[in-house]
Amino acid sequence: MLKLFNTLTRQKEIFRPLGDIVDIYTCGPSVYQYAHIGNFRTFIFEDVLVRYLRARGYRVKRVMNITDIEDKAITTAKKQGKTLREMTEYYSKAFFEDMEMFNLLPADVFPRATEHIPEIVDIIKKLMENGYAYRGKDGSIYYKVSRFGGWGELIHLKLKPGKKKIKRDEWGEESNILSDFALWKSYEKEDGDVFWETELGKGRPGWHIECSAMATKYLGTHFDIHGGGMDNIYPHHENVIAQNFGAFRENPSKYWLHCRHLMINGKKMSKSLNNAYTLAELVRMEFEPMAVKYLLLSMGYRRRLNFTFDGIEECGKKLEKLHNIIESLRNANGRDDASKLVKRARREFERAMDDSLNTGKALKVMEEFADEAGKISPGRESAEEILEAFRIFDSVLGLLKPF
Ligand SMILES: [Zn+2]
């Protein structure tokens, strides 16, 4: 029985999908910079989620948005002397290359915010009609937080009421203050040629409304899983819930899953702390992408995980060992029977993954299974049975070379 930890209820819950297809929305990258491997901890966990659901026989539809319009995207494009489109194309391409190097399955839909302005306008109009949004003196349209009683449900914190309005996409230090936030930002000189002429006036969307609009378009007003990094819980996902409630009277997702950030030297890996590595940088240092991925999976996605170069090296060795054992199994011609061993490993692997995707435990199961398989001398049929188990494990983890 698969259990997933739901941030909404703070509990591991038995996973029961709403319909025939498991619908998943995951917050994708902001393409004004390279995604670092801390960001990829989340994207890898989401990939494993999709793979495991499929391995368990579910049909899955996954949407991952590309945030190609937000405050920082505009300032970065200006700094680089590029148009917004040129810059976001560049970083999107880099993101997709990293995804491929990490052997991540593409989402079924990769919607871009700038291509969904009509949907965004529609949902803001609904919010205004329902009394959840208003136009500020500056011409921007804000979400009226005091109108929504359920605010703070996801973060489970008591927030102080404030009177300020926030037009920025990111809120900075005052993040424990309840503030109305911008849904539609009226045009300002600094926005240059980044604007849309719409029924709402000349301007551009806020970041939070983008996800409500795109999730609704592709998955409807209530779907199975909404995922992201823990940093997304507040304010982003809290705002998404508020927006959807205001427009459609319901929380958009049954399960909310959040991946913990990656640590380095006791601090969170982040661009702003200047301690982040991209996959491309690590590859230039001659680390294998799969060894990096192995490290990122070596703890369940909600556990604290520290990044070190020694850690990647150790994981590289473990991978090499696995490949060697697989290679020797392909030439096996002994007599030992492995069916008990296989059965036990498969059962333990499933148990680990069923426990809210405990990839750390699942990897240990695979390592021990490889050790034991390396100690026996199986016959052809048994060797094939072992190899098949490895293929099943790897259909979930996506770490091994094809065999
Ligand atoms: Zn989002």
Notable traits:
2 domains, alpha/beta, four-stranded parallel β-sheet, binds zinc ion, Rossmann fold, 403 residues, 12 helices, six-stranded mixed β-sheet, Isoleucyl-tRNA Synthetase, Domain 1, 44% helix
Explain what you see.
This protein is an alpha/beta fold and 403 residues long. It folds into 2 domains: 3-259, Rossmann fold (3-Layer(aba) Sandwich), CATH 3.40.50; 288-397, Isoleucyl-tRNA Synthetase, Domain 1, CATH 1.10.730. Helices cover 44% and strands 17% of the residues. It contains 12 helices and 14 strands. It has helices at residues 37-55, 71-80, 84-101, 117-129, 207-219, 233-248, 279-284, 289-296, 309-330, 339-354, 359-375, 380-397, and strands at 3-6, 11-14, 21-26, 59-64, 133-135, 141-143, 160-166, 177-186, 196-198, 201-205, 223-229, 253-259, 263-264, 267-268. The strands form 4 sheets. Strands 5, 6, 7, 8, 9 and 10 form a 6-stranded mixed beta sheet that branches. A 4-stranded parallel beta sheet has the order 4-3-11-12, sandwiched between helices. A two-stranded antiparallel sheet has the order 1-2. A hairpin with a 2-residue loop joins β13 and β14. α8 (289-296) packs across α9. The longest helix is centred in the last third of the chain and has 22 residues, at 309-330. It is elongated, with a radius of gyration of 23 Å. The chain binds zinc ion (ZN). Its main location: cytoplasm. One of its GO terms (cellular component) is cytoplasm. It is an enzyme of class 6 (ligase).
Give a nutshell description of this structure.
By secondary structure, this protein is an alpha/beta fold. The chain is built from 12 helices and 14 strands. It folds into 2 domains: 3-259, Rossmann fold (3-Layer(aba) Sandwich); 288-397, Orthogonal Bundle (Isoleucyl-tRNA Synthetase, Domain 1).
